[in-house]
From TrEMBL:
Encoding gene, per UniProt annotation: zwf_2
Keyword tags: Carbohydrate metabolism, Glucose metabolism, NADP, Oxidoreductase
Pathway(s) of this molecule: Carbohydrate degradation; pentose phosphate pathway; D-ribulose 5-phosphate from D-glucose 6-phosphate (oxidative stage): step 1/3
Protein name per UniProt: Glucose-6-phosphate 1-dehydrogenase
Function summary: Catalyzes the oxidation of glucose 6-phosphate to 6-phosphogluconolactone.
Positions annotated to bind substrate: 203, 207, 241, 260, 365
Start and end residues of each Glucose-6-phosphate dehydrogenase C-terminal domain: 214-514
Matches recorded under NCBIfam families: PRK12853.1-3 (NF009492), zwf (TIGR00871)
Organism: Tengunoibacter tsumagoiensis
EC number: 1.1.1.49
InterPro entries: G6P_DH, G6P_DH_AS, G6P_DH_C, G6P_DH_NAD-bd, NAD(P)-bd_dom_sf
TM annotation in the entry: none
Residues annotated as the enzyme's active site: 265
Superkingdom of origin: Bacteria
Ranges where the Glucose-6-phosphate dehydrogenase NAD-binding domain occurs: 29-212
Length: 516
């Protein structure tokens, strides 16, 4: 692929991804390849890697799905996906041509053993023709109910191991529906694949700004000394979305905000903020520390659930200038649904670093804007000597905000003297913006994670014990909610910042939600 070197040379972004020229050629088999995730995320991510990074020559994709496509129709679909969703546009015809040559389609039902035999043959053929040397990644991107069957069939066909090369499996979220099903899925996949072959994906861990939480904390000497209960008053983690269900009513009804966002993305963010420094930046050292945070979460069970959580559904309203229906009027949603589209939780981490520091998590759909951030609010100065500094008798607390998306960056709010002859103090911000500091586009989370899997690096994937520990925390809440009366499900107008109950929930502690 001679054109690559030109593209690479022109593209400073390559510096943003870890380059190992020794990346071995492999085949990625995508189960559920005609689905939305493949269309919007996986194919555009792979194409961008082909464009900007030396995806090994011979890298191939086998799309395993039920629709009656041919290689050619799948390639056309892939081109449409890339044209629509690629970070880099327009499509580079030369790169596309060599990328497309590696795209193959295999039509089969997931339960049909013959399909897996055909897959085996095709993979052997690709090893010969494209030099993929027996290296395989199986990507499960089907509805989760199909995972066990696919895993079992891969094992039965002997595709879980390969004497010639390595075999890895990526499992999309949701990983289970509750503690029992997550445990059972772990057991089933563990019967067929070894833990080091299993990559449970949480795309939030692939976001640059999320990885930067650890760099910020641990590559700088000045923050870690204040990163504890002596200096921090509380932490707020917000993942707000202006989107609604996006046609996923059926899935969302079974999931709700707590399973869709808290169990995975938000608890992951929390572990990165709260974990102890690992002894090394490698998969097990990092995950050992993250899992300790999850184990130290104060369990929420029984009545505590209702005082420490707020759940709500969006009602009709306006979002982004568009009138939208309420959750109960959405397609695929039961008019008596008890599925939450908003959740706020107060939780504590029972360890020496964090004892007594509340962590407030909130997420919701149809909020006024899309924004994800972690805000660390520090305690006030122990004594305010500037007596007349502030008419309200209050100087605003210092807040360090890690903005995950959009406007990625970090800011620190502190008090400054207003110029003039009297002593007035006003809050100002010290800002770092990724965009202006690095002047380069960030890779999509999936690009980073797919590449890490090809490298055999599972640091940014969740381990078996981690996923189960996150479910244990969430399960206590789910159990109590199940028997709680209908009145505990609040509503909020679409396009607002959630139910009034959530404001009262934090006000009663003398705090307030940030308005990002
Ligand atoms: C997914 C959820 O995991 O994350 C979606 O299933 C949600 O409901 C999405 O919209 C948010 O991801 P991002 O990267 O857009 O913040």
């Amino acid at each position: 692929m001679p054109q690559r070197s030109v593209v690479e040379a022109q593209n400073p972004f390559r510096e943003g991804l870890r380059i190992k020229e020794s990346l071995e050629p492999c085949v990625m088999v995508i189960f559920g390849a005609t689905g939305d995730l493949t269309h919007r995320k996986l194919l555009p991510a792979l194409y961008n890697l082909a464009l900007e990074h030396p995806l090994p020559a011979g890298f191939s994709v086998v799309a395993f799905a039920r629709r009656p496509y041919t290689d050619e129709t799948f390639r056309q679909q892939a081109l449409d996906s890339i044209n629509q969703y690629s970070r880099q546009k327009p499509v580079n015809p030369q790169v596309w041509e060599s990328f497309a040559a590696g795209l193959h389609y295999l039509q089969s039902d997931f339960h049909n053993p013959t399909g897996y035999e055909q897959l085996n043959e095709l993979l052997n053929k690709l090893d010969q023709e494209r030099g993929t040397s027996g290296n395989r990644i199986f990507y499960l991107s089907t509805p989760p109910s199909q995972y066990p069957e696919i895993i079992q069939n891969l094992g039965a066909a002997g595709l879980n191991r390969n004497r010639k090369g390595w075999t890895r499996i990526i499992i999309e979220k949701p990983f289970g529906h509750d503690v029992a099903s997550a445990h059972e899925l772990n057991r089933q996949v563990g019967k067929v694949f070894k833990e080091e072959q299993i990559y449970r994906i949480d795309h939030y861990l692939g976001k640059e700004t999320v990885q930067n939480i650890l760099v910020f904390r641990l590559a700088n000497g000045i923050f870690e000394p204040v990163w504890n209960r002596r200096y921090i008053d509380h932490v707020q983690i917000t993942v707000a979305e202006n989107l609604g269900l996006e046609g996923r009513g059926g899935y969302y009804e079974e999931s709700g905000a707590i399973r869709d966002m808290i169990q995975n993305h938000m608890l992951q963010l929390m572990t990165l903020v709260a974990m102890e420094p690992p002894i090394a930046f490698d998969a097990n050292s990092v995950r050992d520390e993250k899992v300790k945070v999850l184990h130290a979460l104060q369990p929420l069970t029984g009545r505590d659930v209702l005082t420490n959580t707020i759940r709500a559904q969006y009602g009709p309203g306006w979002v982004g200038g568009r009138e939208v229906p309420g959750y109960l009027q959405e397609n695929g949603v039961s008019p008596t649904s008890m599925t939450e589209t908003y959740v706020a939780i107060k939780t504590f981490i029972d360890n020496w670093r964090w004892a007594g520091v509340p962590f407030y998590l909130r997420t919701g759909k149809h909020l006024p804007k899309r924004v994800s951030e972690v805000a660390i609010q520090f305690k006030q100065a122990p004594l305010m000597i500037f007596k007349n500094s502030d008419a309200q008798g209050q100087v605003e607390p210092n807040v360090l905000t890690l903005r995950i998306q959009p406007d990625e960056g970090i800011s620190l709010k502190f008090g400054a003297k207003v110029p003039g002859t009297d002593m007035q103090i006003r809050a100002v911000n010290m800002d770092f913006f990724y965009g202006s500091s690095f002047v380069r586009e960030q890779p999509e989370a999936y690009e980073r994670l797919l590449l890490d899997c090809m490298h055999g690096d599972s640091t940014l994937f969740t381990r078996r014990d981690e996923v189960e520990a996150a479910w244990v925390f969430v399960q206590g809440i789910l159990d109590e909610w199940k028997s709680a009366p209908r009145e505990t499900m609040h509503t909020y107008e679409s396009g607002t910042w959630g139910p009034q109950a959530a404001d009262e929930f934090i006000w009663r502690e003398g705090r307030r939600w940030r308005r990002p």
